[in-house]
Specification:
4 strands; about 180 residues; 8 helices; globular; disordered N terminus; two-stranded antiparallel sheet; about 15% strand; alpha+beta
Length: about 180
């Protein structure tokens, strides 16, 4: 896909431009779908998410949180939310999983879960940056670009590490490109 800048008009403030798209169609996925893709990566047994020097981001941290520190009375997360085979597109489970209270409980109650909490924070920010009606434009931009830079640094770290690949140790390409 190439974009050529074409002068569209000139006015008292100077010329302005528009992109002339050489492709007839550009597909864009919605943020909720991207959030569910990120959730599926975390719950997948075939992808091992490595975060620099931190331990692996893992569903095991969420299971430990649920089993050792019951969240039922807080109505946050339950084991059925972690069943990726049955509920791949379960938006409500993705929202519960990435809730700020869950990530704070992970950090404080489950040892070695910082990478998992960071992954869930990123998942929440990707979705909220596009869907929250209460955010101001600059807040949206900051949230999504923080995620973009985080992903770029993470991917770069994997590329520079021996024995790790983006295909096996990073989010799926489709989710990365959507973000």
């Amino acid at each position: 896909m190439t974009f050529n800048m074409v002068t569209a008009s000139s006015n008292s403030k100077g010329p302005w431009f528009r992109a002339k798209n050489s492709m007839p169609f550009v597909g864009i996925q919605n943020a909720i779908h991207v959030g569910n893709k990120l959730k599926s990566c975390l719950l997948s047994s075939s992808i091992i998410l490595l975060f620099g020097n931190f331990l692996v981001a893992s569903i095991a941290h969420l299971v430990e949180l649920i089993e050792k520190h019951p969240l039922n009375n807080q109505q946050l997360l339950c084991l059925t939310d972690l069943n990726s085979k049955k509920k791949k597109r379960n938006h409500a489970a993705m929202v519960r999983m990435s809730d700020k209270r869950v990530t704070e409980l992970l950090k404080s109650k489950v040892e070695g879960s910082l990478a998992t909490a960071q992954n869930l924070d990123m998942m929440r920010e990707v979705v909220e940056s596009f869907t929250s009606v209460s955010l101001r434009p600059l807040e949206r931009i900051k949230m999504i670009w923080t995620c973009v830079f985080y992903l770029r640094l993470w991917g770069d770290k994997i590329l520079k590490s021996d024995g790790y690949t983006l295909d096996s140790n990073f989010i799926i390409k489709n989710a990365y490109y959507c973000i």
